[in-house]
């Protein structure tokens, strides 16, 4: 299980700058979600696509604070990993995953991790470097998006996963130069035993400085909840948010 955060903004900014004082509360979640952190930035211009991944807890990392503060962009994703049981803690298994101008992070599990491998285009299957269900999820999304377009593609990918895999949560964020897609799709009953009922909830906050989406578990005053079985699609040119039933 993991924690997700992403933003898109009209101007270049960073996670600490756009989130503000409560960003440290989110980072503190890495005391549990401690198996790695990753940051990707995807500028709308395409001129700044950066990926940083470390196999360590964000709060204990010697490079995390400077990396997130100095990595200015008008779009970015941040992931705090808590490794699924049986999957190794390694850089290849650490999110985000990137292909072209697409960047992807996931919270949840698909069992078995390779359940959807037969449905991934061979050209994407050849790019797999880790063993996670999340990386398979990413390449299945790209497979279906290439065939059907963004909205129909992600809906098709979710349908394939639900039919052929056993899932806890398919919550994810997918960003490219044009769109920021956040999916809230989970089984609340399959949260960790210790976790509160809203563990899988995704919340969002539109502001003049940009649009933020993030997992729950920290102080989020004024944030709205993205309902389960829904996705939010942000157009990076207009910053309009379209909420889509899955």
3D architecture notes:
Keywords: Glutamine amidotransferase. It is a single chain. It is globular and about 45 Å long. It has a seven-stranded antiparallel beta sheet. A six-stranded antiparallel beta sheet has the order 5-6-9-10-14-15, with helices on one face. Strands 7-8 form a two-stranded antiparallel sheet. It has a single domain (2-245), classed as Glutamine Phosphoribosylpyrophosphate, subunit 1, domain 1 (4-Layer Sandwich). It is α+β, with helices and mostly antiparallel strands. Helices cover 22% and strands 34% of the residues.
Task: List key phrases describing it.
Glutamine Phosphoribosylpyrophosphate, subunit 1, domain 1; six-stranded antiparallel β-sheet; EgtC-like; Ntn_hydrolases_N; GATase_2_dom; glutamine amidotransferase
The CATH topology is given as Glutamine Phosphoribosylpyrophosphate, subunit 1, domain 1
Mean pLDDT: 96
Low-pLDDT parts are none
The radius of gyration computed from the alpha-carbon positions, rounded to a whole number of angstroms, is 16 Å
Largest sheet: 7 strands, antiparallel
Number of strands: 15
The percent of residues in helical segments reads: 10-25%
Number of domains: 1
Shape type = globular
Name the CATH architecture. 4-Layer Sandwich
What is the CA-CA span between the terminal residues?
22 Å
Tally of individual helices? 6
- How do the helices and strands follow one another from N- to C-terminus? EHHEEHEEEEHHHEEEEEEEE
Q: Structural class from helices and strands? A: alpha+beta
- Tell me the strand percentage band: 25-35%
What's the arrangement of strands in the largest beta sheet?
3-2-4-1-12-11-13
Q: By CATH's scheme, which homologous superfamily applies?
A: Aminohydrolase, N-terminal nucleophile (Ntn) domain
CATH class: Alpha Beta
């Amino acid at each position: 299980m993991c924690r997700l955060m992403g933003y898109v903004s009209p101007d270049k900014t960073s996670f600490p700058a756009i989130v503000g004082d409560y960003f440290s509360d989110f980072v503190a979640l890495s005391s549990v979600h401690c198996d790695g952190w990753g940051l990707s930035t995807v500028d709308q211009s395409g001129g700044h696509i950066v990926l940083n991944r470390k196999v360590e807890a964000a709060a204990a990392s010697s490079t995390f604070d400077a990396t997130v503060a100095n990595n200015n962009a008008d779009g970015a994703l941040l992931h705090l990993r808590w490794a699924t049981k049986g999957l190794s803690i390694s850089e290849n298994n650490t999110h985000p995953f990137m292909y072209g101008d697409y960047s992807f992070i996931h919270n949840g599990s698909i069992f078995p991790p390779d359940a959807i491998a037969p449905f991934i285009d061979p050209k994407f299957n050849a790019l797999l470097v880790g063993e996670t269900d999340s990386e398979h999820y990413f390449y299945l999304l790209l497979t279906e998006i290439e065939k059907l377009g963004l909205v129909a593609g992600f809906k098709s990918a979710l349908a394939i996963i639900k039919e052929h895999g056993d899932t806890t949560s398919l919550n994810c964020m997918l960003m490219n130069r044009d769109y920021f897609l956040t999916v809230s799709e989970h089984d609340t009953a399959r949260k960790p035993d210790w976790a509160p009922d809203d563990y899988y909830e995704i919340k969002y906050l539109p502001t003049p400085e940009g649009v933020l989406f993030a997992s729950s578990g920290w102080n989020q005053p004024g944030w709205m909840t993205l309902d389960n079985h829904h996705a939010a699609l942000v157009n990076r040119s207009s910053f309009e948010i379209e909420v889509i039933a899955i």
